[in-house]
Inverse folding.
């Protein structure tokens, strides 16, 4: 995979790319049926800040959010598909901060049937290349709900350090949630 460094941030252009096994394309409205199916699985959303989706309109709202942050150069979310075009999940940057920092918050969700096959093990390094080399970020971070051990292990395997716990950082599903902050620097 090769991503050319960008002098200025512009997330509105063609940002499709491939890794060895997967193709990534920024989420768009055509993804709503598969995104709905994917995020209606309670196993997938267990540690996420959303309830399992009840309808495709909710998937469209998430896609609207993803398209909005992209238009504002404030974040980017790709859909991940295999070489046959099968939808496997999403990954990207919930936030990109370039004015008062050089950091991006990574986030990801893979369908349960594809867990443990190295999907994120292949996609996360590509996100790091995109963030550090493509966007010139200094810091990547991730917020992980306490208890989501597979996500913690994934980040630790890829050079992220556990920096601390933010107590009652999130509020969703009717309760407060502690979150672990992970960070990885460009150095
Ligand atoms: C956390 C999550 C993203 C991990 O994605 P993944 O694609 O399953 O990650 P990987 O396959 O790269 O790694 C998962 C495990 O499979 C193992 N693995 C990777 N490739 C493998 C392979 N070819 N064969 C067997 N095992 C493999 C990894 O070593 C890892 O093991 P571990 O968890 O015991 O350390 C996924 O579980 C998920 O989407 N969960 C629900 C949504 C979520 O919680 N998102 C994160 C919010 S912070």
């Amino acid at each position: 995979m090769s991503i050319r460094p960008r002098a200025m941030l512009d997330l509105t252009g063609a940002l499709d790319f491939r890794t060895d096994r997967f193709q990534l394309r920024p989420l768009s409205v055509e993804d709503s049926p598969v995104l709905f199916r994917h995020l209606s699985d309670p196993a997938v959303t267990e540690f996420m800040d959303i309830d399992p989706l009840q309808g495709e309109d909710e998937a469209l709202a998430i896609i609207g959010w993803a398209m909005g942050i992209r238009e504002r150069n404030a974040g980017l979310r790709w859909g991940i598909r295999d070489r046959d075009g099968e939808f496997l999940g999403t990954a990207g940057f919930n936030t990109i901060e370039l004015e008062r920092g050089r950091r991006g918050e990574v986030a990801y969700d893979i369908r349960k049937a594809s867990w443990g096959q190295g999907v994120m093990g292949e996609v996360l390094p590509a996100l790091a290349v995109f963030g550090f080399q493509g966007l010139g970020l200094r810091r990547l971070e991730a917020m992980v709900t306490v208890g989501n051990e597979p996500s913690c292990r994934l980040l630790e395997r890829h050079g992220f350090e556990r920096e601390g716990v933010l107590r009652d950082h999130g509020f969703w599903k009717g309760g407060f949630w502690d979150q672990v902050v992970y960070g990885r620097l460009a150095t």
